[in-house]
Amino acid sequence: MKTLKMMLALGLLSLSITSAQAVQIRDFHKDVIGRDCKACHDHGIKQFPSDEACLKCHNIDDLVKASKRPEEDKWQNPHNNLHYGKDLPCQECHAEHKTKKPLCSNCHTFKFDKHID
Amino acid sequence: MSNIDLLGRRKFIAGLGAAAGAAMVSPAMAVSEKADGVKWDKELEVVIIGSGFAGLAASIEAIKLGAKDVHIFEKMAYFGGNSAINGGLFAVPGSPKQAEKGIKDSVERMVADQLASGRGIADEGLLRHVASHANEALQMTLEAGAEFHPYLQQLGGHSVARTYQTTVSCGAGITQPLLKMSRKMGVHTHNRSKFEGFLIGKNNEVVGVKMRENYHFGENQPGKVLNIRAKRGVIVATGGFAQNINLRMAQDPTLTAEVGCTNAPGATGEGMFEMFRLGAVPVHLAHIQSGPWASPDEGGFGYVSNYSIFNFPHSIAINRLTGKRFMNEIADRKTRADAELSCRDEKGNALPPILITSFKDSKKHPNTAKVIKYNVGWKFDSVEELASHFKVPLKELKAQIKEYNEYVKTGKDTQFGKNMTKAKDKYIQAPFTVVRLWPKVHYCQGGVQVTKKAEVKDSFTGKPIQGLYAAGEVCGGIHGVSRLGSCSIPECMVMGMTAVRSMMKA
Questions:
Q1: What DSSP state is assigned to residue B473?
Q2: pLDDT at A30
């Protein structure tokens, strides 16, 4: 029985290591979250997280201040923009496991220097 | 009441080009079903699919008329659809600002302009209905807090200035206030909710919808599908299909993926397809409009579109091969788009024409600074500099500018018959601002046939499908061959309001 439990434990450990290694994770999230998939995946691993997941740790008003633009371009603020205000879900421009461009770039040539693809 | 089994006509519908195109849209096609024995996950009073002008106006009107439980479902992550990214141009005949400016206009005059553009196949009854209620729609936007420029614009094909524009020169100047007002009034808004089909009652009426949760556009989706009963009815306000490459190519093979499109990515037409499955009548699907104000130098609608729309009345469009004008700059969209597409170099390759404006006139619009800043527009201090930059024959261009300025002076364009009212005293002179023009797929005149009560007609019986209403660009036939600019906002909003009035028998 002890041997069986040990084998199962080793198997699970291998499985989790393999899973974590197979999925690209942002460096900044790796540092803070580590391998805790549930930190974001509130709908389970097989679905995208809810739009509220990011906002558990990131405050939208702080982000609006951080990405503020000069007055004549104020509505180009990606976190408080002309078309959708503060309503645009984070996942529309930010992805964890693949690269993603800002939604604005479908139509505009704005520069978002801090955006990580 | 129809005795014909609506779902049994799938094979009939499949024989039409639209459905054939539909078959290629996505691997997970929506399917409408009989509601017999269905376990309802939710029972809601009013179900609105789509969150653009039509859906938002419908939701507000529903609450005003006494509905207590109103829901908007939007498949995208964000609300507003194409309405949130359009030019915010709103035509209203007999408006308060026309009265203020002493501009004479009428429902009849606006409808006449639209019929001319529709080339004989527009729906006069629907156009008159929309024009007659446009002021009510405008009032709703003002009530919500929308703000408009202090001037009216005269867009291509219109015989008089009747077009409001939001101060942010964008439809979001209307969608954002409407969305906020809608929510404040108690409307429930649901994003990432994908309409997966209708649920049909015993008498072939629409009794509900299937809606997938946690939908991410363009991704494979395991989200749960809910059966939602709609106690009063369903309003489909899902917009057009300009982003559906297969369907637009089925109508016009030249509209390949390489042709630019101004639309939001979600404008793919599934709501329309699902109504066709039920038996809705397809109307004018082949009339797909391109925007003649668009730029090859930026994506989608960008900044140039609104810049051009504002400046066309007092500008000249020049073929770069000849140095000459080639069109009436304020003709309707199809006339101008076709004329632009004919601008070619010696080898027949596309040669986007340029729009030349005096800076003293263009600088009045906020987009002028933006087009220059983002390198999608240019400013020149001399005609020589301009001609050199765009490789336009200088002598011919100078002669054309001189000739056109005579038309400005006399008020009569003998070259292309342009209405020079808005160009009065606006001579083409340095410094100039210039943009390149190239049409982009913009608006689908086609869609499902509706009555003046926003009811969806059944193709076999000619009668409305009970429990089902449609409003906005998802409807077809209203505009005929070519929609006039700024006539979509009044249509979307008025028909959204109309759908609710019909549903609630107001």
A1: G
A2: 79
pLDDT score recorded for residue B5:
54
Handedness of CA B326, B331, B333, B334 (dihedral sign): negative
What single-letter amino acid sits at B207?
V
Bridge-based pairing of strands B188-190 and B163-165 is: unpaired
The percentage of residues in chain A with a pLDDT greater than 90, rounded to a whole number, is 36
* Topology at the third CATH level for domain A23-106: Flavocytochrome C3; Chain A, domain 2 (1.10.1130)
Asked: is B6-88+172-289+443-483+493-505 a CATH 2.60.40.420 domain? The reply is no
Per-residue pLDDT tens for B82-132? 999 999 999 999 999 999 999 989 998 999 999 999 999 999 999 989 999
CA distance A96 to A102: 14
Best probe of the B interface among A43, A46, A48, A50, by most B CBs < 10 A, is: A48
How confident is the model at residue B287, as a pLDDT? 93
* Contact present, B443 and B289 (Cβ < 8 Å): yes
- E strands in B171-277: 188-190, 194-200, 206-212, 225-236
> Which stretches in chain B have pLDDT values below 50?
1-3, 9-28
Q: Which CATH number fits domain B293-438: 3.90.700.10, 3.40.50.720, 3.30.1340.30, 3.40.50.300?
A: 3.90.700.10
Indicate which residues of B carry an active-site annotation.
333
Question: What is the pLDDT at residue A87?
Answer: 86
In three-state form (DSSP H/G/I as H, E/B as E, the rest C), the secondary structure along chain A is: CHHHHHHHHHHHHHHHHHHHHHCCCCHHHHHHHCCCHHHCCCCCCCCCCCCCCHHHCCCHHHHHHHCCCCHHHHHHCCCCECCCECCCCHHHCCCCCCCCCCHHHHCCCCCCCCCCC
Asked if A46's CB is within 8 angstroms of B298's CB, the reply is: no
Contacts 24+ apart (CB under 8 A), B411-417: B413/B328, B415/B325, B416/B325, B416/B327, B416/B328, B416/B331, B417/B328
Please give the pLDDT value at position B20: 41
**Interface probe, candidates B214, B224, B225, B368, chain A, greatest A C-beta count within 10 A:** B214
**Residue B22 C-beta-side C-alpha neighbours within 13 Å:** 21
Give CA–CA dist B410/B412, Å, rounded.
5
Res A16: pLDDT:
47
* A28 neighbors A94 (Cβ within 8 angstroms): no
**C-alpha of B375 from chain center:** 26
